[in-house]
Design a protein that fits this description.
heterodimer, A: about 80 residues, alpha+beta, Mth169, Chain: A, 3 strands, about 35% helix, B: about 230 residues, alpha/beta, Rossmann fold, nine-stranded mixed β-sheet, two-stranded antiparallel sheet, 6 helices, 11 strands
Amino acid sequence: MTAYRVAVHVVPRRGLLDPQGKAVADALQTLGFSGVRDVHVGRHLVLDVDAPDEATARRDTQAMCERLLANPVTEDFEIATVSVT
Amino acid sequence: MKFGVVTFPGSNGDFDAYRSVVEALGEEAVYLWHKDTGLQGADVVILPGGFSYGDYLRAGAIARFSPIMRAVATHAERGGPVIGICNGFQIACEAGLLPGALMRNESLKFVCAPVTLRVERDDTMFTSRYERGQEITLPIAHGDGRFTADDETLDRLDGEGQVILRYAPDPVQAREAYNPNGSMRDIAGIVNKRGNVVGMMPHPERAVDPVLGRADGRLLFESILHGVAV
């Protein structure tokens, strides 16, 4: 078994109203960052996972996202990085 | 009739639900701990309001894995009535007992206020004592109540008559004034296709006695008593 560190991003699905992201975007524009067009606020999860290989670590994480870490109705997820720890 | 009120860590509407059943309706109720695996013979299950597991990850996301939820799912599959109120609605959606999801209120504010609702169905086991089109007032208290689903699901809910409560549209006022959370199609409460699981953001159990200010929620419980043979 190898110890992997997996980073996952979960964000509100594009097209759904994201009032939190909009509030942050408005605040950034107020600060003078006029180039900011859109902000989406989500979650960044870091998982330490033991798996025989990277493909298994990815597959397990994918299943975790589908079953718990992301809501299939309202959120999208991506496995950002998988690294050996 | 025996009501089972589930207590999750972080539930806070369980006591209200229990008392409304026992004191206002004069029926039997038991508390069901989230680690229980049986329903103690309850005919009706209430998933109460609150902040189960601190709303960690998402409201209702962790509670759905509580041992009691397996028994609740079996009860629902057999046609047993399940009432998900507020956090209970969120849990029922996360558990797949109901379609859709409840997202952060459009205003980003926690809203604690009475709201006017329109009863859309008077032929369900939860609403038979109301009249179709009747406007009622129930309290809400939530920060994550924006009912969200894809268009196909929303069309199906409308087409199959699964929307039983809507925030009553007011032609004079802006949507923000009557729809407290930005719910799609003003949806406040739905039933599953079979009609035995209801999820609603308003709190009927906090409106069962005029001494509490209003009693429009009482008819929901009386509908169940009327409709479910024991």
